[in-house]
């Protein structure tokens, strides 16, 4: 039940983290080199040469493929547009498309030469800005590509191969520490009683702390359904046991743990929100309806592990939190492209509004959405809180809604992509920056928390004693951050004296961690 939001039909994907690879519901690969695993999985190769070699406008070279696809594109119901071509033509298309649409096209080194790269994907990897942010991080950490068939399947919420558990790599280098972040109900992990906080001890007999990274990654991140892997896990209670998990196609559950907490200030609603996908439209509306019926006076929105997704869903969620008062007629997010305005946006087309009715992803289009009418909301955040999740925060702040962050600094993805399929690969290069109604979108180094609180793997998500939720309740009741109660990465609370030195736990999933809009090229990119 999916319709275009408006005349735009470009799939807009903001700030996804990783490159292509097997789908997984667990994040961040294990590294064996003694250096921190590269959470972004981007490639920083260099090349020599003299001039860019684009070969002409990208549209003239599109769909000319070394290996043309045959048959019907499931996203359009029409034959694939591929015609016979060469790898050189595919590489020329990549260069031309970057020159035309990349937000920082004038910062891409002019010494990169297509002939130095074996594939168009390898060439694409280096066609990005080499500049840094104020903190010294790569300005573009989000450049990636992915197999189009996988992209189409997972962005629609139809699932990817895994066990149904997200694992947190608290240390990805020896001696490694790997714990379970959360488990999706009904999945292989849930059926085998894997729980949040479980520590993985061995995988297929290989020691997690110091064993072979390749063997551990093969067990943690299966590429095919039906793979059986044996794991030794220790629970928070200290019970060690052996389980065998068989991988399957796992359908994500974007909304979990919808509940209420009685406080002296009234009833506080809580919901865990994991992904802005199409199904989330229905699940969020159901959750807000439930909380509205219970007359909650405050909301804690747990997006600590939410990498992003549909910007339309982010806009719907922001409206459902605040209601029409501050949002009616206001801009949720405005897209700022490069100086060429490559998509020909008018001012109206560049503005994405607060969505008071369903887009039509999984609810009937134009169905009125419920709302809580809140003037403030608390978001539980972390370094895995990215793109569309950050847009919820920035969009609400842009219309005067108070948003407190409790946890740690977000990932910093104010940028967006219009994903384009060419010859079976979907390419995503940053095409715009998103800004709110006040014109703010400069959070490339993340959004700092109001209260810095380390993640707490010793309590379930939604448990009022879980460190971040407990801190949110304290902040609501007293107006101040709680004093620290411990120093471990799993339990500690810290005052808001600066961001926690916390890296993303979850291995970035390029098929999930993105922000996109329905809109110009719907025929070439299924949303």
Question: Overview of this structure, please?
Answer:
This protein is of the alpha/beta class. The chain has 12 helices and 27 strands. The strands form 9 sheets. It has a 6-stranded mixed sheet, with helices on both faces. Helix 7 (278-293) links the parallel strand 15 and strand 16 (298-302). The chain starts with 57 loop residues before the first helix and ends in an 11-residue tail after the last strand.
Main attributes?
single chain; about 525 residues; alpha/beta; 6-stranded mixed sheet; 4-stranded antiparallel sheet; about 20% helix; disordered N terminus; disordered C terminus
Q: Give the radius of gyration.
A: 22 Å
Assign a percent range to the helix content: 10-25%
How are the strands of the largest sheet arranged?
14-15-16-20-21-26
Count every beta strand, where a strand is a DSSP E run of 2 or more residues. Answer: 27
Percentage beta strand: 15-25%
Given the helix and strand composition, which structural class is it? alpha/beta
> Separation of termini?
12 Å
Which ranges are low-confidence, i.e. pLDDT below 50, for 5 or more consecutive residues?
A: 1-28, 32-52, 486-501, 517-527
Mean pLDDT: 83
Largest sheet: 6 strands, mixed
> What is the tally of helical segments?
12
**What does the overall shape look like?**
globular
């Amino acid at each position: 039940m999916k319709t275009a939001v408006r005349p735009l039909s470009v799939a807009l994907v903001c700030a996804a983290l990783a490159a292509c690879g097997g789908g997984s519901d667990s994040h961040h690969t294990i590294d064996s080199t003694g250096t921190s695993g590269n959470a972004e999985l981007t490639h920083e190769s260099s090349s020599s040469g003299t001039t860019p070699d684009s070969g002409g406008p990208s549209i003239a070279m599109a769909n000319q493929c070394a290996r043309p696809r045959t048959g019907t594109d499931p996203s359009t119901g029409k034959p694939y547009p591929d015609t016979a071509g060469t790898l050189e033509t595919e590489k020329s298309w990549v260069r031309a498309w970057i020159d035309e649409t990349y937000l920082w096209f004038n910062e891409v080194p002019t010494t990169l030469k297509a002939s130095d790269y074996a594939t168009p994907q390898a060439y694409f990897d280096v066609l990005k800005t080499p500049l840094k942010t104020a903190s010294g991080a790569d300005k573009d950490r989000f450049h990636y590509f992915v197999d189009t068939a996988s992209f189409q399947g997972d962005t629609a919420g139809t699932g990817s191969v895994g066990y149904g558990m997200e694992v947190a790599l608290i240390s990805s280098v020896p001696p490694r520490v790997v714990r379970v972040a959360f488990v999706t109900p009904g999945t292989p992990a849930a059926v085998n009683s894997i729980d949040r906080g479980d520590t993985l001890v061995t995988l297929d007999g290989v020691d997690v702390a110091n064993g072979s990274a390749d063997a551990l990654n093969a067990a943690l991140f299966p590429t095919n359904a039906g793979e059986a892997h044996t794991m030794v896990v220790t629970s928070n209670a200290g019970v060690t046991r052996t389980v065998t998990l068989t991988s399957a196609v796992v359908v994500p559950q974007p909304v979990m743990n919808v509940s209420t907490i009685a406080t002296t200030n009234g009833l506080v609603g809580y919901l865990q929100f994991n992904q802005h996908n199409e199904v989330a439209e229905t699940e969020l509306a159901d959750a807000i309806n439930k909380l509205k019926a219970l007359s909650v006076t405050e909301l804690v929105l747990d997006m600590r592990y939410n990498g992003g997704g549909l910007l339309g869903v982010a806009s719907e969620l922001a409206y459902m939190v605040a209601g029409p008062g501050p949002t009616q007629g206001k801009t949720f997010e405005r897209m700022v492209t490069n100086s060429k305005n490559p998509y020909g946006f008018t001012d109206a087309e560049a503005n994405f509004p607060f969505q008071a009715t369903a887009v039509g992803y999984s609810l009937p289009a134009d169905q009125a959405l419920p709302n809580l009418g809140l003037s403030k909301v608390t978001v539980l955040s972390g370094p895995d809180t990215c793109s569309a999740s950050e847009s919820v925060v920035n969009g609400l702040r842009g219309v005067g809604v108070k948003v407190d962050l409790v946890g740690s600094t977000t990932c910093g993805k104010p940028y967006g992509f219009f994903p384009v399929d060419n010859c079976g690969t979907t390419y995503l290069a940053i095409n715009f920056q998103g800004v709110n109604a006040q014109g703010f979108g400069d959070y490339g180094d993340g959004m700092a928390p109001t209260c810095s609180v380390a993640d707490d793997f010793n309590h379930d998500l939604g448990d009022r004693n879980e460190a971040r939720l407990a801190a949110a309740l304290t902040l609501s009741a007293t107006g101040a951050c709680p004093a620290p109660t411990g120093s471990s990465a799993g339990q500690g609370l810290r005052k808001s004296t600066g961001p926690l030195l916390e890296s993303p736990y979850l291995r970035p999933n390029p098929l999930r961690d993105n922000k996109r809009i329905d809109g110009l090229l719907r025929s070439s990119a299924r949303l």
